[in-house]
């Protein structure tokens, strides 16, 4: 009978350790404090970069100013805000282009109007590979 209780106690001990390990794995908090993200809505297109992007960079989805703007002059606002140290590149692509063309690079806070009424022209903003040094910036378009 003594051997039986020892086996039961050992089984309970092993089972208790397994339960504690499983609970620890399931309820372990995530320590990932930063992740690049995008935010899209009816009146804006933003991206936030707070970690170094990969080889293809990280930025906004493309915006067709002509479709987004309710103004007769077909403009949207482009802005950059945050405390990060990085270069945000404003780019455009015309109908028939295979890739984006760099329009202008920004390193600080910015708020400007983008005129883009030409048919078929799309805009985006991106932090290229190697363009992020530290911190976080949110950038993009609103209309």
Task: Please indicate the percent range of residues in DSSP E strands (runs of 2 or more).
Answer: 35-45%
Spatial strand arrangement across the major sheet: 1-2-11-4-8
The major beta sheet can be summarized as:
5 strands, antiparallel
- Mean pLDDT reading: 82
Radius of gyration: 25 Å
- Share of helical residues: 10-25%
Query: What is the end-to-end distance?
Result: 80 Å
Query: What's the number of extended β-strand segments?
Result: 11
Supply the number of helical segments: 2
Reported CATH architecture: Sandwich
CATH class: Mainly Beta
| CATH topology description | Jelly Rolls
Poorly predicted sequence stretches spanning 5 or more consecutive residues? 25-33
Number of self-contained structural domains: 1
Content-based structural category: alpha+beta
Q: Helix-strand pattern, N to C?
A: HEEEHEEEEEEEE
Q: How does the overall form come out from the CA principal axes? A: elongated
């Amino acid at each position: 009978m003594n051997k039986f209780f020892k086996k039961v106690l050992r089984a309970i001990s092993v089972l208790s350790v397994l339960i504690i390990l499983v609970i620890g794995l399931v309820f372990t908090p995530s320590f990932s404090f930063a992740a690049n993200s995008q935010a899209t809505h009816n009146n804006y297109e933003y991206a936030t970069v707070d970690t170094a992007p990969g080889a293809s960079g990280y930025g906004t989805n493309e915006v067709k100013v002509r479709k987004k703007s309710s103004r007769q002059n077909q403009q949207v606002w482009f802005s950059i805000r945050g405390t990060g140290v990085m270069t945000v590149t404003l780019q455009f692509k015309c109908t028939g282009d295979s890739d984006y063309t760099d329009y202008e690079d920004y390193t600080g806070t910015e708020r400007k109007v983008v005129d883009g009424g030409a048919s078929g022209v799309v805009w985006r903003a991106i932090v290229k590979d190697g363009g992020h040094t530290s911190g976080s910036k949110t950038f993009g378009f609103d209309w």
